[in-house]
Amino acid sequence: AFIFDRMKGKDRDRKIIIVGTGETAKMLNQAILEKENTNMVVLGFVAANIENVDSVGNEKIGSNINDKSMKILGEISFLNKIIQQYKPSEVVLSFDIAPSQLMDLLLDNANAKIRFHKVKEYDELVAAQVINDISGAEPTVPRYNLSKFRAKAIKKTEDFVGSTLALTVGLPLILLFAKNKKMIIKEFLQVWLGKKSIIGLVGSPTNEALRLAKKGIIGLSGSRDQKNLSDDATNKLNEYYVRHYSLSLDFDICIKYIIRNK
């Protein structure tokens, strides 16, 4: 059966769940249905408005869906369970979503092997662009390395081991050579207590970034003095860090900091 499925191309189908039940969702679904030679399959829709359907997809009285051709899988607060049940390869967000809610969705589904795409406008051109994005290899909603359990575990271990060494083996060196001894010891103590990271976010990070990482003693700017960074620069640095975090990235930042502060 497995070989037969591969010959028929079933394993290559891009299984899609569309979040939203408005005009953009309907238009996107129709565009996918009309697209020739596509391997995209719409599994169903997830209501973005909790008032429209119940948790198992039953339409509530007075809802504004009114399209019996739309298979409603449930509502958005149950998206994680819906993904586990239907196992899509793509999730398309067809409504205007707040950054905090988007972050919730990404965190809740960080370990699922799916790609998120986001529709921002309501015309056929955007629908076509989203279809092209889905057909390609890149998601339109970024993935965040620091949302993954393995990366979080490595980061916590890195901070705990680094701060423990700094406050024990490294303490004599701090007392002998550091200019701001009390401040440095205080910062490493905050890292040890889990309130900061040795390497982390810079400046005044957004709430969304703080949900993935902590403020760092040093960061991507390569300097502990980050007050002169603009808000735009800060956001770009923090966005890059949470998206591309790795042990090697932290090592590169450390080396950069040492070279700049010789």
Biggest beta sheet summary: 5 strands, parallel
Order of helices and strands: HEHEEHEHEHHHHEHEHH
So how many helices? Answer: 11
What is the mean predicted local confidence, pLDDT? Answer: 78
What kind of oligomer do you see? single chain
Short description:
Helices cover 45% and strands 12% of the residues. It is built from 11 helices and 7 strands.
Chart the SSEs and their pairings.
Layout: H1 2-8, E1 14-19, H2 23-34, E2 40-47, E3 72-75, H3 79-86, E4 90-93, H4 99-108, E5 115-118, H5 124-135, H6 149-167, H7 171-177, H8 181-192, E6 197-199, H9 207-210, E7 216-218, H10 231-244, H11 247-260
Parallel strand pairs: 1-2, 1-4, 2-3, 4-5, 6-7
Helix pairs in contact: 2-5, 6-8
Protein model, in words:
The protein is of the alpha/beta class. It contains 11 helices and 7 strands. The protein starts with a helix and ends with a helix.
Offer a few descriptive terms.
262 residues; alpha/beta; two-stranded parallel ribbon; disordered N terminus
